[in-house]
Amino acid sequence: MTYQSTLLRLLDERGHIYQLTDADGLDALAAKEPITAYIGFDCTGPCLHVGSLVQIMTLRRLQQTGHKPIVIMGGGTTKIGDPSDKTDARPMLDNDTIEANKRSILRIFERFLTFGDGPTDATMVDNADWLDKLMYVPFLRDVGRHFSINRMLTLESVKQRLDREQSLSFLEFNYMILQAYDFVELNRRYGCRLQFGGSEQWSNIIAGIDVARRMDGAELFGVTSPLVTTADGAKMGKTVNGAVWLHEDFLPAYDFWQFWRNCDDRDAGRFLRLFTDLPLGDIERLESLSGQEINAAKITLANEVTKLCRGAEAAAAAEATASATFAAGGVGADLPVLALPSNGLTIVDALIGIGFAASRGDAKRLIAGGGARVNGEAITDEAYHIPPSAQELRISAGKKRHGVLRPA
Hints:
Elements: H1 6-14, E1 19-20, H2 23-32, E2 36-42, H3 53-64, E3 68-74, H4 95-112, E4 123-126, H5 128-131, H6 136-142, H7 149-152, H8 156-163, H9 170-173, H10 175-190, E5 194-198, H11 202-216, E6 221-225, E7 238-239, E8 242-243, H12 253-261, H13 268-275, H14 280-287, H15 294-310, H16 312-327, E9 337-340, E10 345-346, H17 347-353, H18 360-368, E11 372-374, E12 377-378, E13 385-386, E14 393-397, E15 401-407
Helix pairs in contact: 10-11, 12-15, 12-16, 13-14, 13-15, 15-16, 17-18
C-alpha cells in the first residue's frame, strides 16, 4: 500500500509496520492533523533491553513526523501482570519498587524523545493514576460487560498457558481489560487516537479499540510492529550472555556497541532502518556492501545506535577501544578490567571474575573449546595459573570478548 501521510510512509519504509486496524482511515487522519499516540511499558524492572528499542524508536518516528507521543508507565498494570509470552505469574512488586523502576526507565526515554508542554512534545503518564482509583463493582458494570470470556479464552497468550497446564490467575486474566481501559482513559483525557505495540499486543489493542467504541463511540486505531528476530532466528535482545540492557548501569557502553558491531551481516540493513536515523539512501549504500566491506555498515550501525542510547562520547570511546583491541592488537580503555591479586589467580577464576563465564562449568567448557586466551595465547589447561604481573595482560573469550588483567 502507498501511504499518503508522512507518518505511515516513514514507519513503512523503516520496517515498523506489521498490522494496522484501519490503514485507510489512519492514513487519512495522519495526513490531515497531528495524532496523539501511545505505547505502554510496564515497570517490572529498573531497565529495558534492546527488545523494547523498536517500540521506543516507533515513538521517536511519531514525534519526528509532527505527532505527539505518550509514554504510558504501567504503574497499575505492573501490579497485575500480562500473561503474554510468560510461563509463570509475575512476582508481586510493592509500590516503592514500582516507582523506583519507573524513574529509572524514564532516563532512557529522555534520550530518544523531547518531553515538554508543546503540541508535539512527549508526555509520560502512569496508568495507576486511574486504575488505582477504580471502584470494582462500577468497573465491572461499565467495562467488564463488554468482554466475552469465550473470546478471551481463544487468545494465544491465554491458550498457551492453559495448554501447558500452567496456572493462570484471575488477576492476570484481568490484564486485557485493564489495558483496554487505558485506551479509553487516554482518549478521554488526552484525545489519544492511536496505540502502537508489538505484534503480541494485537488482541489487547483490538480490545481497547472495541471497548472505546462501545462506551464512548470513539474511533481509535492500532498499529503493531513485527517481532524482531536476528537472521539466525534468535529473539532480539537476548544473547548467550544475557539481555542487552539499554542503561549503562547494567551494561557497559563497549559491550552495548559490540552487540551491534557483531550482528549478522544479513541484519545490518534492517537494523540500520529500525534503530538509526540515517537517511535511507545512506542505508541502501551501506547494505549493498559485501565481503569484508560490510563491516563498515556494522560499525556505522554500532556508532549510530550507541549515540542515540548512550551519547556520542560513549560511541566514540567504544569504537576507539575496538580499534585498539582488534586493529592494533592492544587493549582499549573501555574493556572490562579485573585486578590481579598479589598471588595471581587461575584461568577459571579470571574468566568468571571478568564476566566471561557465569560459573566454573562455563569457564571449563570455554577452555576445553579453545576459546580462552591470555595475551593471544590459547589456554587449554583449566588449572593454568596466571601469575601476578607488572604489566597489563589481555584475556579473551573467543574472538569477540576481551578484557584486561591489571596488577592490583
